[in-house]
Amino acid sequence: MHRHFILHKPYGYLSQFVYQLKRHKKLLGELYHFPSGTMAIGRLDEDSEGLLLLTTDGKVSDWVCSSKVEKQYYAQVDGIITPEAVLQLAAGVEIGFEGKKYHTKPCKVYIPETVPEFGMRAKKIRDDRHGPTSWVSITLTEGKFRQVRKMTSAVGFPTLRLVRVRIGSIYLDQLASSQVIEVNEFNL
Question: How far is 91 from 18, CA to CA, in rounded Å?
Fold first, then answer.
């Protein structure tokens, strides 16, 4: 019988259970006693936060990581993002991936009227002396390494904070940072 989990991954944790290098890193196993064989479905880098699904079923992991399932992110960017940048992101932009140039697929992008309250981050982003910031919502059906960060940088608005808020029909909603919920299955 496979087990499935929904987690609000906090800033500063790796989306893995084992880390081979000598530096100490915070791992998912420190947040909850997951059963043996549990794997993160996709990843959020150490500096990213938000919704992370975990499972003991490799087939479920493959399906969620496929291009059939949307992943939505809120990115806090440096500066006030422009409508032109939003259009560029939606059409797809050129980023570097595995040492080559890659053109991202078209995606859904908009400037949200209000941003959910994500709470304070463990490490402060910066203060107002460094200029304004703004938020943009980006919904992808692909997930290249650090893709959202590379995309916003490609249009001149580097990402300062990245929060995944949705995978398919599963939302981060009011899940507290580090909170884990076990579910019978993922209804995506």
Answer: 37
